[in-house]
Amino acid sequence: MVASSTRYRPEGNEGKSVININAITIRRPDDWHVHFRDGAMLQVAVPFTARQFRRAIVMPNLIPPVTTVEMACAYRDRINMAVPDGIDFEPLMTAYLTDSIDADELARGAEEGVFSAVKLYPAGATTNSDSGVTNLKKVAGVLECMQAVGLPLLIHGEVTDPEIDIFDREARFIEQKLIGLRADFPELKIVFEHATTKDAVDYVLSQEGNVGCTITAHHLVINRTDIFKGGIRPHLYCLPIAKREVHRQALRAAASSGDKRVFLGTDTAPHPVHEKESDCGCAGIFSAPTAMEVYTQVFDEEGALDKLEAFASINGPEFYGLSINEETVTLVRDVAELPGRIETAEGETVIVFRPDAGLNWRTKT
Ligand code: DOR
Ligand code: ZN
Fold first, then answer.
1. In contact, 176 and 155? CB cutoff 8 Å
2. Were 159 and a residue from 56, 172, 252, 331 both cysteine, which residue would form a disulfide, CB within 3.0 to 4.6 Å?
3. 104 annotated active-site
């Protein structure tokens, strides 16, 4: 990491100097959790991620879900076709875990370098999760195989019992599912995706080896009260839903700690406006155009810009056993002019996530 700074002495603060970092250069980051969708949406979504990140773990929750090597290769081809010329970007594909998925198919996909991981959606937990796992016992053989071949399991960690309060579903998942899963498969590599609670980061940081977590940009910025600020804010609705302020603070502390178990995953998840602003709006926040600027702003606010590179560019590849990117990116303290909304070729609009307070970092081009 290289930082450029100016030294100044604020009025009334004689004798003390303050370091004000105005630019930071880090290894090019990767995004360990994205939703690109397909068709016209994919065409507009991919360039925003590829502009910023060299690799991305691509979620498989299409309709129908990505469950075979052939489907993953075809999807990867469609993503690659949408990458703008001259941009070096590599999509890392995942398989969608179902009750009946074939373990040999996953092992073959891993062996052929197609599958980088397998995603566990508890059935009914979130968008396009209907084909997800109904009972972990049904996939015990598959998890055994993944553990043996070193294929990571990426977990949407929420229980699905409708009786459980939505704000408690992540913490209950850890108690009711994750602890047992870890005991049964101690060598299985697990990423607890989009951690939203103190419970989740405390759990991950208490574990020695094989467990990491991703943290989104939006969960570092919003808490559950923000979803209702001045009225209901459908573009701040995602799953797992943002929690109380104490949890947001725990996420900020974990992300900016530099701990190797914690890394960047935006969970950028575009939905057309009419599906968000509806009687029953979809979960998902589209953050790809602004995510890196938001993360940088958060690390700046935390006084932890020196930890940004570990979180964004080093911890993820080390967890996955991949090389760290050679290239660098520079972010500068400046007003960022980034789109507030984007349009697909089919005339659908998607709202872009941004903090209410605005953005004061931008990527140098
Ligand atoms: O908010 C979410 N949106 N959470 C998920 O787990 C899925 C995602 C989507 O696919 O839209
Ligand atoms: Zn997701």
1. no
2. 172
3. no
